[in-house]
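Quick start: read one record
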Amino acid sequence: NNSGAIGLSVKADSGIIEHNLIHHGTDDGIQTNGSFGHTITRNIVYLIDPTNTPGGNGPGIKTRVDEPAYTIPGKHYIHHNLSFLNQAAGFEIGLASFGLGAEFYNNVSYGNNGKGITVTQLIDPTIAASVKNNISFGNLGKDLDYGTFPVGFNNFNLVKDGGFSPINSPQNLSGDPGVANLGLLNVDTNNDGTPDVLDPLNNPNAFPDARSAILYAQQKMKEIFGPTVTSRTIDAGVNVGLTQDFFGQPAYDNPTKTPW
């Protein structure tokens, strides 16, 4: 059977999905389907469908564009999530004309077998997502796929492969984001398909409770994805009203620094 880890479906509007650790599912890590107005924040999603299960899918976080008439329209808020090493895209953001778009801020996508971040307006191109302050790099597909509409909504992101329009996204940057210890994800001494640094999370008896496992994972995310002292991501981006980074540090401890 193929199953998503966490899903919000028809009529389940205005949900909150936060502080979850999700890995080794056979379909989506997090998916919304025919519902709107969700907040998806501070989740760690990795190795979804790592063996490419027949009939599986494997994106880390996905919002679908289904729009039944009895669903209450609302905007998605998706911020401070890490999605990496998944079978498909890191993030698939689908927008429907019955919704109110999405605010997609301060997320990290790395090493996914699909695209890093993809935003799709399948029904009404005037319904837009504001995509800012995200870091996407090292993905097999495009690091960020949002087309060229609308001007300024895909902006202030670090997109390593440079796949964006400099006219529509003048503050986007390409190149290396400068993270601390990315090489830890390449060490798998027991060849189980999971980086050694994350192996304890495969053992249900390794931690006394779920909170302890999540705290361990958060610490390892800081060791792996935390910025180096020379990273251009430090105190960068644009103010979107979020006061902390993923690690709980002040988002702008040097407010005089020019974004990016």
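The helical segments are 210-225.
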